[in-house]
Amino acid sequence: MSGFAIDWPGASRRAKHAHELLGSSGTGVAELPLRRDVRESWKRSLESSAQLRGPSVLSDDHLRLARERSELQRIWPVFEKLLVPAAADSNLLVALADAGGTLLWVAGGNGAMSQAEGVGFMAGADWAEQSVGTSAPGMALATGSGSQVSGAEHLYEQAHHYSCSAVPIRDPRTGQVIGAIDLTGGPEAIATHSLPLLQAAVMAAETHLLLPGAGVVADPDYLDLGRSDGAHLGSVPISLRHAEILTLLAHYREGLSTAQLVEELFERPDAAAAGTVRAEIVRLRKVLAGPGGRSLTSRPYRLEWELHTTIGRLWHALERGDLDTALPLYTPGLLARSQAPGVVALLYRTEAALREMVLDRGTAHQLLNLGRQLADPGLLRAALRELPEQSPARSLVVAEVQGLEG
Predict the structure, then answer these.
(1) pLDDT computed for residue 2 by the predictor
(2) What confidence tens digit (pLDDT) does each residue in 13-34 have?
């Protein structure tokens, strides 16, 4: 969201006119008098579904299973404590949606909840863009950014009496969006303080996910390379050498021969290197044979399942131009102890691609973030160009650049 105040009455009037124009012949979505992010949401929604209907709703049994299987169950109590009491006092609702747009929990005053159920805003309902069109939780999940929607800006006409603000929730270890927290109700839902309030609650919830015993449910098909306590495959800690092998095999999906793997792993391959690789593969197969066992073929060595890695997810985010996801995935300590030539080259390409994208389209905050991680004066100078002239951070950044270049 932009930093300036939005003329909400004017936005709602223009949105009502947009609905009228949408029904007339020859008017495309690009021509509608809507705020840019809302217009883009309408376009995505209409492209994904020719006829938007009311939200589908899970049965009680399926809702219970969805809650039990979601990592969001660990942080719903955080939102209950920080948001629900004040929301109920203001006749607002707090809703927690999963990554697919299903509202797993909705809480607030009984009267407000009963009224919202009349338009399908209830636990178990699907409020993704492809289901009901534009809404704050649907937009937040689609864009990965905080979103606000007022009245007629909703494509779903039954929701025109409501306004909403929502902020995405990210897995703090992977940067992936895992859900969104939403505030829904009358005009108070889009008050100036609504997004900052939600963002503060999300920061607390994401921090809670990092606490011992309260982390995100480990994905057995994810190789987490960014942990301070070493690489983990799901919840299983693995050695640096095994992390290197899996990283390379996940990158080279077609597989690697013994000779190729030797070249990727050893700076100075010798006669014993091939035997060392075979021995490591034997040990790695024992690790993979644990719960939910995975297989690794020979000739060439190839993974028989889809393994996601921190580096792979970072590259996928870069391919989408999604810096909000890519930056949390990168740390200078990513496999920092590795001396395997193939891994070092992959890390170099990753860092270079991330740096170029941040220079090309990054905000001042993103430029500062990566510039400080890499101790890169070029990025910090670019951040200075983006910072407002009155920003108190400028003198500090100038000192940092001088220190790095001195």
Answers:
(1) 41
(2) 888 888 878 766 556 777 788 8
Tens-digit pLDDT profile for residues 188-199: 999 988 999 999
Say how far apart CA 25 and CA 28 lie, in whole Å: 9
Give the integer Cα–Cα distance in Å for 234 and 136: 32
The model's pTM is 0.55
Three-class SS state of 100: coil
Contact 358, 378 (CB under 8 A): no
User: Would you say residue 126 has pLDDT above 70?
Assistant: yes
Amino acid making up residue 162 = Y
* Amino acid in the structure at residue 342: G
Token output for 48: 């994904």
Mapping DSSP to helix (H, G, I), strand (E, B) and coil, where does residue 185 land? strand
Tokens of 296: 């690794």
Question: Using an 8 Å Cβ cutoff, are 113 and 93 in contact?
Answer: yes
What sign has the CA pseudo-torsion 359, 363, 367, 369? negative
Q: Tell me: the pLDDT tens digits for 156-201?
A: 888 899 999 999 999 887 788 999 999 999 999 999 889 999 999 9
pLDDT at residue 401 in the model: 87
| 258 closest CA partner among 306, 309, 312, 297 | 297
Number of H helices, E strands in the chain: 18, 11
With contact defined as beta carbons under 8 Å apart, do 246 and 233 qualify?
yes
Give the length of the chain.
Answer: 406
